[in-house]
Amino acid sequence: MRRSGLMLIELLVSIGILAILVAVLVPALNKSRLRAKATVCTSNIRQLSFGLCTYAADNDRFPYGFDNTPNEPPPGGYVGHHQYNRMGWWWFNYLEGLYEKSMGGNTVLQCPSKNLQHPKLRDDILCGNYGVNLSICKMSSGRKSRKGFIGEPLTSIEVRRPSQTLLVLDSGYAIISWWHAADIPPVPLSNSIIEDAAYVPGLKINKDRLLWPGGGQNYDALFGRHPRKTVNIGFLDGHVGRSSADDLLVEKDSDGYKNLVPLWLPK
Questions:
Q1: Using the 8-state DSSP alphabet, how is residue 117 labeled?
Q2: Is residue 3 assigned to a domain?
């Protein structure tokens, strides 16, 4: 007579089948989760692009990427860690209501796939989320060697090919320039300040870059955030796209730099 219940062999077979199902389903679930985060990121970029373009329409030019005005931005004052970030207004402080919403739990300024290991960087809204193109949203002040990115921000009519020019994208820091995506930048980029350690997540040249010495950027910089090392991008005409990180690479050759205009530099 057969005993009731599962025999040992049946139990082992059942466990084996469950193990196979888990092995098949977990990677699929992980991929679905990554795709969902990338979709949320695309939505964030779309909202940021709309906010930046609306500001430009209302004020005749885009906001500063960074402005060292002595007045603290509302609400909550300066953002970032004072030991390695400059204190001032950042581009998102100019977008009415946007930063306030983020403080209230709306994560439009935070990439859902942000992957920084250092605890200070994880909590810093300037790091590992989104950055504006410094050729458009310039800085009010900075080092003399960065003069191409200092001065009045551009107006919309100064950009000849807005549908092909970057405005805001997945970035290692809140402001980013084509120098950070160039295999041989015009001026060597140090890692003494975190601004110089900005990067396009997943860009192949990041393996040779000097990242911030405080650590924590490596995984995000080398392996990217989204499936297949893609990057979400908002363009100056307001549309949003997704591109391979290496499509943003600026390479130096005998004739100058390739992939520079109009992608990064609107001439």
A1: -
A2: no
Give me the residues paired with residue 242 across strands. 232
Q: What is the pLDDT of residues 136-168, one digit of tens each?
A: 999 998 877 788 899 999 999 999 999 999 999
Domain span at residue 132?
A: 8-258
Residue 194 counted as domain residue: yes
Asked if residue 266 belongs to a domain, the reply is no
What are the CA-CA distances from residue 109 to residues 40, 43, 70, 92, 174 (Å)? 11, 11, 23, 8, 10
Residue 138 in any domain: the answer is yes
Question: Would you say 130 and 171 are in contact if contact means Cβ atoms under 8 Å apart?
Answer: yes
Q: Which residue has the tokens 């030019």?
A: 61
- CA 7 to CA 143: how far, in whole Å? 76
The residue whose two tokens read 């092995």 is 23
**pTM, to two decimals:** 0.86
Question: How far is it, in rounded angstroms, from Cα 189 to Cα 178?
Answer: 12
3-state secondary structure of 114: coil
Q: How many domains does the chain have?
A: 1
